[in-house]
Every structure is written in C-alpha cells, then in structure tokens.
C-alpha cells in the first residue's frame, strides 16, 4: 500500500490524465535499455537494440513500453491495493520472465525522468515526490510474489 | 562500487593509469565529450540546477534531510542555495578532471566519509534528482544518449566520492 496525501493523489492523477501513454511508455522503456544496457537481456527477441537510435525506433520496444505504462496506470487506480493489483504480474516476472526486481526501480526512476522532460515546470518537486512514492510502490508490489 | 569492470581496450588503459586508489574507471571519449558540452551549455547556471536537485531530493527522499538538520530547508532557502553552489563547484571540478576523478575528489571523499559520515546511497538519490532537473530544463537536449553519458558520469563521481569510506 502506498500512502499518498490527498494533494499528492490529485497531483499524480492530474498529471497522468495528460500523459500520452503510447509515447511515454515507449520512451521510458527505450531509455531504460539505452542507459542501463544490461536490461536488454530480457528483450533478446526484440531485434535490433544495437544503438540508441535503433532502440528508440524499435517498434517492439514501443509496443511493450505502452503495455508497461498502461499497467502502471492500473496501479494508479488501485493505490490501496497495489500488491493485489500486481500479484499475477509479479508471479509472471518471477517464474516465467526471471527479471531481477532491482530493474523495476530503475524503470520507475527512468519514468520519472521522462515525465520531467515532458512536463517541465509542471513537474515540481512535490509532483516528483508523489510519483517517486508511486513508482516505489509499484516496484515493491511487482517484487512481492518473488520466491 | 569500486569493482573493476573489464570493457575491452579502455579497461587496459584505465588499469595502466590506476593510481594509489587501485582500479579506476574512466569514461569513454564520447561520454566525456557529451558531459563537457553540456557543462559548457549550463555555463554559470550549474548552481541553479544543483540547488533545484537538492530541493527535489529533500522532497522526494525525506530521509536525506537528516543530514541537514542544522540548515533551513524551506524552498528558496539561502542556505540550500549556498550548499547547491558547493555541489555545483564540486561537479565542475569533476568535469574538469574526468581522467582522474578519484584524485580530484579525494579531499571531498575524505570529508564525506570521515567528517560528515554520509551514507553513500544518498549520493545516488541526489544524482537521480539532478538528472530529473536537467531533463525538466533541457528537454530538447536530454537525448537517451546524453542521459546515458550523464548517468555514467554521475556514477563515476559517486564511486570516487565513496572511495575513502573504508
């Protein structure tokens, strides 16, 4: 469970309403793969990831990024039950995908950077703080079923 | 932190250059060029952005405030601005000594390790908030490649800063 104040909830929901989920998801995932290249280990079937331009232009990266961000958005609607919301995704990432949960924190931080880039002045320290809580909550929930 | 990473020819050169502190990591020529170019662009405003990064760190990661109980941390505080400038000066020093960060930052490392006794995890939090600040102010410049170069630069700075700890 993530504890956001009423102001923080309003800030996060307000901003999320303006997020172009298609674009931001692909950008966040792409930047993760460029800035932290070891994360590419999970995407060997995605084709050309050989340089930044290839990664950012890769249609599978964009599609998967969109999927990931939509999922994040689900978390936003279920702040009181993140663990329940992400339970089956958590099992999937552990049992089938074998993803080190440390990488969820990395993606969360990359998402924060991408939102800062898109929203500029609107992405105040307070809004960032709220998103950091949300990102950490989602990362923790995704790691919850690991064994 | 502090592990030698073998990355081909660059690593051999880095190891040959390693000084009293043992294995050093050296940024690639491309990363160095990217960081220097950005720093030229930031010019005299580095302090503005490091101050904002500090403010963001205090808001997003409240535990970091425990090191600043003696300062006024309210937004706009002159004390935070002064500290932001100190951080800016240190980063500019780092940018001007990219080939020898451990030596350039050794005094700061000793200070943070032995006098201030700051848990090094906090350096990463400030580094992240600096990236957020730069992305917010320079959206057009903040390409994935620049983000990667900056992230690597900051992790080298953090590694050098933590090198005196034990």
UniProtKB/TrEMBL annotation, chain A:
Keywords: Acetylation, Heme, Iron, Metal-binding, Oxygen transport, Transport. The keyword Iron applies. One of its GO terms (molecular function) is heme binding. GO terms for cellular component: blood microparticle; haptoglobin-hemoglobin complex; hemoglobin complex. Residues 3-147 form the Globin domain. The keyword Transport applies. GO terms for biological process: hydrogen peroxide catabolic process. Belongs to the globin family. This is Hemoglobin subunit beta. It comes from Myotis davidii.
């Amino acid at each position: 469970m993530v504890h956001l104040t009423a102001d923080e909830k309003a800030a996060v929901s307000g901003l999320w309403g303006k997020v172009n989920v298609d674009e931001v998801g692909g950008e966040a995932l792409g930047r993760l793969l460029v800035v932290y290249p070891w994360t590419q280990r999970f995407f060997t079937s995605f084709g050309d990831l050989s340089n930044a331009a290839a990664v950012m232009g890769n249609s599978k990266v964009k599609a998967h990024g969109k999927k990931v961000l939509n999922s994040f958005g689900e978390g936003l609607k279920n702040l009181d039950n993140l663990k329940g919301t992400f339970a089956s995704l958590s099992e999937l990432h552990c049992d089938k995908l074998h993803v080190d949960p440390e990488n969820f924190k990395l993606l969360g931080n990359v998402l924060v950077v991408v939102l800062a880039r898109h929203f500029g002045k609107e992405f105040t320290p307070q809004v960032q703080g709220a998103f950091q809580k949300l990102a950490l909550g989602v990362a923790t929930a995704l790691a919850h079923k690991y064994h | 932190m502090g592990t030698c990473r073998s990355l081909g020819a660059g690593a051999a050169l880095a190891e040959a250059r390693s000084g009293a502190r043992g294995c050093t990591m050296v940024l690639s020529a491309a990363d160095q060029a990217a960081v220097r170019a950005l720093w030229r662009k930031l010019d005299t405003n580095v302090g503005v952005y490091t101050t904002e990064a500090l403010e963001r760190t205090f808001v997003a990661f409240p535990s970091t405030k425990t090191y600043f109980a003696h300062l006024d941390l309210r937004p706009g505080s002159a004390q935070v601005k002064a500290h932001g400038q100190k951080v800016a000066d240190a980063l500019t020093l780092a940018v001007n000594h990219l080939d020898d960060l451990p030596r350039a930052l050794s005094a700061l490392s000793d200070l943070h390790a032995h006098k201030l006794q700051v848990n090094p995890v906090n350096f990463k939090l400030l580094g992240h908030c600096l990236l957020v600040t730069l992305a917010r102010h320079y959206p057009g410049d903040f390409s994935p490649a620049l983000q990667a170069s900056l992230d690597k630069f900051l992790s080298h700075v953090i590694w050098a800063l933590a090198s005196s700890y034990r």
